[in-house]
Every structure is written in C-alpha cells, then in structure tokens.
Amino acid sequence: MSGFVDKYEIRRQNLLRLRDDKCNGRSVTLAEKISKSTAYVARLLAPIDRQSSKVISEKTADHITECFKLPKGWLDIAAGHTIDSATPSFVIAKKCITDYNEEICSLQLLDKPIKTLLPPYQDGLSAFQVLTDKYYPRIKYGEFIITTNQDKATSGTSALILFNSQKATYATYPELRAYMQI
After folding, report:
1. Omega of the bond prior to 137 within 30 degrees of 0, cis?
2. Under 8 Å CB-to-CB from 163, ≥6 apart: which residues?
C-alpha cells in the first residue's frame, strides 16, 4: 500500500527552504542565483492552487539544483533532509501498470528499468510506472507509484494490491476491505 504526495508541492516547499536558508529569505537573491526574473520566481514560490503559480518542471528543478550545487533530484525529496547533506537514493522500477478490464490491471516488465528518486531514509520500497490513464487525474500516465508492503489499511489509505506477479488492482480504503479477504 502506498500514500501519494504531489511532487510539485515538494519542489515548491524545497525551493522555499532554499530561499530562506541560502538566500536570506530574499526572493530577489534566489532569482539572481538561478538567473531568472523575480516575477518568474514569485510564480514558482506561489501555492500551487493559485492561478498565478507555476509548477517546477524537471528541467527547472535540474537547473535550480545545479545553481546551488545540490545533488540532482534534491528538490524532489520530501522533508527530512538538509540542504548541505542530502544524498538522494533511488528505487528501480522494473514493472509497469498497464490498462486493465474493470478492476484488474496488468503488471508488465519494462523494456528498460527506470531509476526514480526516493527520500534517503526510505527502505523496502517498490516502484511501478503507470502506463494507463485509468487512474487519472490522481495519477497521470508516466508517473510512478511507490509502494511499501503493509498488512493493514487505515481510512484514507491508497493501495496497489498485488494478486500475483502479473495482476494487481488499485483501491482506496474502505474499498480495500473487499480485496483483503481474497
């Protein structure tokens, strides 16, 4: 079972940390450091639910980490790391989730495994690339589901339930109860 966190919000929060810790809380200094306009930086820092906000793309995230001499992927790590000592770790996605009929989806081996970034303090995780629009808008085509094995579900839990190495389903508690008895 796994929980989902919006990567763009994580990036925005980490950019706020960079502004506060490395630029003395000044957006102007941050803009100079990454060679962007202050208006552009203000849009990156704005809460994502505002119409004027701009999400931090992969290309922009890489540019920002290069400017601050941080490890690639640093902006994608959720809270729990420091600016000076963050060392990202990765999980390798070897399978993808493809279209399915009604409730069951197919798990297929990827032609080429993909490394995806994880917080450095996470162990025992598996990754699956989603290659279907079935979960849209919550999970978009091409994104990853990161899972950890758990025996129990709680209210609000989202889960990828593996039936075998080739079949699975996705559900949210309390829908999970029906699958937990299989």
Report:
1. yes
2. 104, 169, 182
- Predicted model pTM: 0.49
Q: Over the stretch 125-165, which tens digit does the pLDDT of each residue have?
A: 677 777 777 777 777 777 777 776 666 666 566 667 677 77
Strands of 167-172's sheet in order across: 144-148, 125-131, 89-101, 104-118, 167-172, 158-162
Look at residue 83 and tell me if it is in a domain. Answer: no
* Domain count for the chain: 2
**What would the pLDDT profile of 43-80 be if each residue is shown by its tens digit?**
999 988 788 889 999 899 999 999 998 887 888 876 55
My answer on whether 57 and 113 are in the same domain is no
Which of 30, 47, 76 is where one domain is finished?
Answer: 76
Half-sphere exposure of residue 157: CA atoms within 13 angstroms, side-chain side? 19
